[in-house]
Design a protein that fits this description.
two-stranded parallel sheet, 7 helices, about 60% helix, globular
């Protein structure tokens, strides 16, 4: 029972450390964000609704996935499809910002972004 007494304080401290709003505001100009929301999750709806209300107007993208609280385990194909769509959208929007000349100064940015989006480390 004594161990459980500290749970509330620990949980609140974790919320301060993992403040998504701070992370989003600090990095939104450097790379895009996507939040996946499961349609039937009984626990996370309030957090996602708050993120949408606070950050949606600043460009936060929230997409719905089928399933419940463990949707990434329950619906791995839906998650993979969401990530693939997001990557295509990011690559399309980035390519319009970068010169199509693969030898020009914009080519390094495009190559770097493609490496990051695909998960391949850039050296």
């Amino acid at each position: 029972m004594a161990r459980a007494a500290g749970f509330v304080e620990d949980h609140k401290a974790q919320g301060d450390r993992l403040d998504f709003g701070r992370l989003f505001n600090a990095y939104r100009g450097q790379f895009p964000f996507l939040v996946g929301r499961s349609e039937e999750d009984p626990f996370e709806h309030r957090q996602i609704d708050l993120a949408q209300a606070r950050l949606g107007g600043l460009g936060l993208q929230i997409e719905h996935l089928p399933g419940g609280h463990l949707t990434t385990h329950e619906q791995p194909e839906a998650l993979a499809a969401l990530i693939a769509r997001f990557e295509r959208t990011v690559n399309t929007s980035r390519s319009t910002l970068v010169s199509p000349d693969t030898t020009g100064p914009g080519s390094a940015l495009l190559s770097r972004h493609e490496d990051v989006a695909s998960g391949v480390p850039h050296h």
